[in-house]
């Protein structure tokens, strides 16, 4: 956290920490979460790599030092989605995110600015006059970007108490703690649904996308930011890519995103790589550097005053925007 910012005080009583590895009990077999093809028809992608002793409260936080752990990942031969063949139940995941730590205030602000600049050209006056919903809103920094873009009403859903506690006071009324429950919104009432760096984490991305379609008014937009497992950097890094993460239930590529959005009824699907702009210290933290080189690089960057200098890179993230017909 930058100097001069007040420490965040959570506004909920501390809870007993759950057994760290509780998430690993009762894993359930899954079929492709995008097209429904049986797991038996999927190709091996990456074997499981889980160290129960290393699962902590940050394992399910949005941004953290990479741990390179994963469930057994397979690749759907029909739609190209990579997915965890065995995964925690929806309830276990909701619990893990409820208790997740939150340490990403500065990075979240940079990410929100990147996404707002990329999305702005697609927003018509009708979209701005309506209500936007963000699924996985963290501390609400992107909601603020939407308000700054002239969106009339914004609503954010976020499971982590700590993330919501970190929200600026003015944004708190727009945030609801919990997971996305379509029944809490009126069908046809939204002009925009955003789900950024969250779609990999949800137990059922197909249900989420279909529900978003129903909640949008005709002409409304859906916007996803996801990793692209087929991007050159992620292919090169393999298991040492930050996208290999125990909290990722699925990984997407342009083909699987097109399938997900098209099957839900969306049209005018646009999928493009985005350049993420982050401080140098964030990029260094993500790099798969061996042993003491990483802390040494970070210390050197800070000593030279470069740690907060921002740098825009294409690291294999995709912005997908699609429109509900009508
Ligand atoms: Zn599939």
TrEMBL record:
<protein>
    <recommendedName>
        <fullName>Methyltransferase type 12</fullName>
    </recommendedName>
</protein>
<dbReference type="Pfam" id="PF13489">
    <property type="entry name" value="Methyltransf_23"/>
</dbReference>
<dbReference type="InterPro" id="IPR029063">
    <property type="entry name" value="SAM-dependent_MTases_sf"/>
</dbReference>
């Amino acid at each position: 956290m930058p100097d001069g910012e007040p420490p965040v005080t959570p506004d909920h009583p501390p809870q007993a920490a759950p057994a760290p590895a509780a998430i690993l009990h009762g894993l359930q077999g899954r079929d492709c979460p995008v097209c429904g093809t049986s797991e038996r028809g999927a190709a091996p992608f990456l074997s499981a790599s889980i160290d129960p002793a290393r699962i902590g409260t940050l394992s399910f936080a949005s941004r953290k030092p990479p741990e390179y752990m994963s469930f057994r990942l397979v690749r759907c031969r029909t739609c190209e989605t990579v997915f965890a063949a065995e995964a925690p139940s929806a309830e276990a995941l909701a619990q893990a995110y409820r208790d997740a730590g939150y340490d990403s205030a500065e990075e979240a602000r940079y990410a929100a600015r990147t996404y707002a600049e990329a999305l702005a050209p697609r927003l018509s006056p009708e979209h701005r006059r309506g209500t936007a919903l963000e699924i996985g809103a963290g501390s609400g920094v992107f909601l603020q970007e939407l308000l700054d873009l002239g969106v009339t009403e914004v609503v954010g859903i976020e499971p982590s108490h700590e993330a919501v506690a970190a929200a600026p006071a003015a944004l708190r009324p727009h945030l609801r703690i919990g997971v996305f429950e379509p029944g809490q919104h009126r069908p046809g009432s939204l002009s925009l649904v955003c789900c950024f760096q969250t779609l990999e984490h949800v137990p059922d991305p197909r249900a989420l996308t279909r529900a978003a379609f129903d909640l949008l008014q005709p002409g409304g937009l859906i916007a996803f930011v996801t990793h692209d497992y087929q991007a050159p950097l992620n292919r090169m890094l393999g298991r040492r890519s930050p996208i290999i993460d125990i909290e990722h239930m699925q990984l997407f590529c342009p083909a699987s995103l097109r399938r997900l959005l098209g099957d839900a009824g969306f049209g005018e699907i646009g999928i493009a790589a985005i350049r993420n702009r982050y401080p140098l210290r964030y990029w260094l933290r993500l790099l798969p550097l061996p042993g003491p080189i990483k802390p040494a690089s970070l210390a050197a960057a800070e000593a030279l005053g470069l740690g907060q200098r921002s740098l825009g890179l294409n690291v294999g993230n995709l912005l997908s925007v699609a429109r509900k017909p009508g």
